[in-house]
Amino acid sequence: MIPLVTLTDLTLRRDGQVVMSGASLSLKLGERLAIVGPNGAGKTSLLRAIVGLERPAAGRVTLFGQECTREADFRVARRRIGFLFQDSDDQLFCPSVIEDVAFGPLNLGVGEDAARATALAVLEGLGLAHLAERFTHKLSGGEKRLVCLAGLLAMRPDVLLLDEPTNGIDAENGARLRAALAAFEGAMILVSHDDGFVSELASRAMVLRAGVLRPAEIHSHPHFHAHPHIHAPEPRGGA
Amino acid sequence: MTLWPGDLRARLLAGAAVLVFIAPLDAPGPAFAGLALVAVLYALERHALPWRRLLHLEAFLLIVLVTVPFSMPGTALLTLGPLQASVEGLWRALTLAAKVTASVLFLSALFAGAAPEHLGAALRALHLPEPLVRIFLGLVRYLALIRAEMARAQEAMRARSFRPGTNLHSWRSYGWLIGRMLLRALQRADRVEEAMRLRHYAGRLPRPATRAVPRADKLRAIALPAPFLLILLWGLG
Q1: Average pLDDT, stretch A31-50?
Q2: pLDDT of residue B4
Q3: Which residues of B touch A51 (CB under 8 A)?
Q4: Are the beta carbons of A81 and A158 closer than 8 angstroms?
Q5: Quick count: other Cβ atoms within 10 Å of Cβ B76?
Q6: Contact A187/A31 with Cβ under 8 angstroms?
Q7: Is the Cβ pair A107, B198 closer than 8 Å?
Q8: How much is the pLDDT for B206?
């Protein structure tokens, strides 16, 4: 079986400095690969290199069995890859939610009505149908993230790249995001600080430290822990 | 009942027509008639006057009122050293003020109920160049973010005891603030563009199918500028 995404000995440079050297990975159908590592380790750069927003100084990017070197190669592959940005405001640029979700299908040449119908169906699937006519800049942080995801899912991607998906998202919308990602049938690469989120979702993990990517292990074991609690005082004179 | 066309395309066209009819007026009589007509529209629509906007505008018009009389030759009204204000100049200044006030008041009322986000679609439907529509929509989308960013940056400065004054330190700090805002805006623009490319944007969107403008709105769009046309004809006659 051909892997969906393969990186071979990838070296990335920024401003003349090597930010990643010799990174290799391969993502197979249905796999959920978590990449963990400290801030500034190059996790976002790695995702950007996969979709061709950053070009490697050395090494190869192979998407769906096709080696990609030029913008045209990446363009073809990007139809099947959804990239969820860290800052949702960078991704949501249309005035209304429904327009933003329909943006991708429209770019793929789907007709106006069909694109709208697809967008509505995806929003409904995520439990966001009530947001359809809202203005994007008036949504909460969590809602924005979910609408971004809807915009990606509307293009029916085979692979999702998630860059810190749970950052700045409230508990309720976080639960919705988890549910939506758990239900996603394709493969994904997720970059996250949120250990709980990673262990719940990922099937495999790699660690990126100081520009070097290594396989890692996900294991879970029971914890006994203690931490201080704050309780609101009980109302006086109660039952 | 409202006099404004409900359809934004019709409303935009009616607004543009009214401005085109007001702009060439060059005598005080027609200009003030136009202003009076706008006031009548406000009364008919029971629309409150936008005092704040008006105040900003009149402050700007004060400059016109003070300078224009001195820039036109004619019957002397007031002499200040080598400078001479003319009666003709004063009338010209008042005409200008009436025209500008009438235009701004008219547009304020006409678009008071329209969300800018919806105006973009109407502009596109009217076949305005796509880059202009994009710039407009981008502004609408990101203005709040840029404003919030600016406010946060200024709060952060204040939190470190920055008090603006007329000194080099203040000017330099403001220079840095503006430079940083520009840099962040450019970076944001790059990221937005990347996000669009990742969703297969190739610089063009299919023009959305548009519904026909309702008949009643067409009639309103013709009826609304008509009295302004009459004033223009009177002014030219």
Answers
A1: 90
A2: 87
A3: 198
A4: yes
A5: 10
A6: yes
A7: no
A8: 66
Contact A155 B195 (CB under 8 A): no
Contact call for residues A181 and A208 (beta carbons, < 8 A): no
pLDDT given at position A239: 45
Owner of token pair 């030219």:
B236
Interface A:B, Cβ pairs < 8 A = 73
The residues with which A27 forms a beta bridge, in sequence order, are: A5
**pTM of the complete model:** 0.78
Give the per-residue pLDDT at B207. Answer: 67
Q: For residue range B121-168, what is the model confidence (pLDDT) as tens digits?
A: 889 889 888 889 888 988 888 888 888 889 888 888 887 878 888 888
Strand runs labelled E in chain A: 5-14, 17-27, 32-36, 58-63, 66-68, 81-84, 159-163, 187-191, 204-209, 212-216
Residue A32: is its pLDDT beyond 90? yes
Interface of B with A (CB under 8 A): 115, 117-118, 120-121, 137-138, 140-142, 144-145, 188, 191-192, 194-202, 205-206, 208-209
Extract the tokens encoding B170.
């203040």
Is pLDDT at B118 greater than 70 in this prediction?
A: yes
Furthest CA-CA distance within chain A: 73
SS3 A74: helix
Q: What is the spatial distance between Cα A223 and Cα A196, in angstroms, rounded to a whole number?
A: 13
Which H/E stretch holds residue A80? none
Burial class (CB in 10 A: 0-12, 13-18, 19+), A45: buried
Asked if pLDDT for residue A223 goes beyond 70, the answer is: no
Q: What is the mean pLDDT of chain A?
A: 89
Give the residue on B whose Cα is nearest the Cα of A137: B141
End-to-end Cα separation, chain A, in angstroms: 66
